[in-house]
Amino acid sequence: MKNRTVLALIIGIMALVGLGVFFSRVAGPSNGSTQKPVLAATFTPLTLITREIAGDDFDIINILPPGASPHTFEPTPDLVIKLQKAKTLFMIGHGIDDWATVLANNIPDVRLVTVDKGIALKSPKDVTTFGTDDDEHASGSLDPHYWLVPANGILMAENIASDLEALAPEKKAGIEQRLRLFTDKMTTLDSRITQLFTDKTNRKILTHHNAWRYFADAYGLEIVATIEPSPGQTLTATEMAGLQDIVKKDKIRTLFIEPELSQMSVASLSKDLNLEIKTLDPEGGLGAKDYADMLWRNAQTIAQSL
């Protein structure tokens, strides 16, 4: 998504203020009744964590619908209007949802919070990549996929809790209680995932998207390569030969793809290399009931394929 496209859309919506239409749609009740503070989060994994920490004390807007790609997102006019009520907008940052900055600049009194404080961010470019990596965040210096391990989920939740306590100090006791419950759940989940991999002798994996560095490092896996061809393009003969060598040498049996890449698009490749295709869900678009469920499903898919 081009930032200028988003900006042009927002400017057009904000122009409605002069006509009185904008305020008529976003104005709160005039009878003095209290409303819950409104929060927004850029996409599903972050929204799932926010819901667990905020509980029923806040209303939460999930900006991207489940399954939508943060790389191609464009806001609708209704969404931009709805976001005018938000007091905090939580984002991942580092290239994956930087369009949130453009939105926040046009929301009065909103706080834009990147939830990465305390997280040891990693380089995104440390594995062999076959094809043209055209991700919007690929040229960045830090890998934004830090939400894919429970330990970082705890730190994200702590950052969210800190902001919510500043926003609504009277809700502090409930926020801290929910944070403790979330932390305990993540600690247990981390132990369960660790157990999944204890008896795995071959810990090498092949992915279509370079999103799993944090997960691999946390659980002793090695990403031997990623496959990221441009849309409609196939690997060159040289790339195919190099990939074949890796698959044979490292005894790779599975190619892990993500929901936005159909199995048909890599069917020929997987057949040529005798690879099974399995789908991982880093963005929570396949019906995970909560953040822990999303992480557990991904961990099981990887472990069962080794």
Description:
There is one protein chain. By secondary structure, this protein is of the alpha/beta class. The chain contains eleven helices and nine strands. The strands form two sheets. Strands 5-7-6-8-9 form a five-stranded parallel beta sheet. Strands 2-1-3-4 form a four-stranded parallel beta sheet. Helix 10 links the parallel strand 8 and strand 9. The longest helix has 25 residues. The chain is globular and about 65 Å long. About 6% of the residues have low confidence.
Q: Any idea what the CATH architecture of the largest domain is?
A: 3-Layer(aba) Sandwich
CATH superfamily of the largest domain: Nitrogenase molybdenum iron protein domain
CATH-defined topology of the largest domain: Rossmann fold
Mean pLDDT equals 86
Order of strands in the sheet with the most strands?
Answer: 5-7-6-8-9
Radius of gyration: 21 Å
Instruction: Tell me the count of domains.
Output: 2
Shape: globular
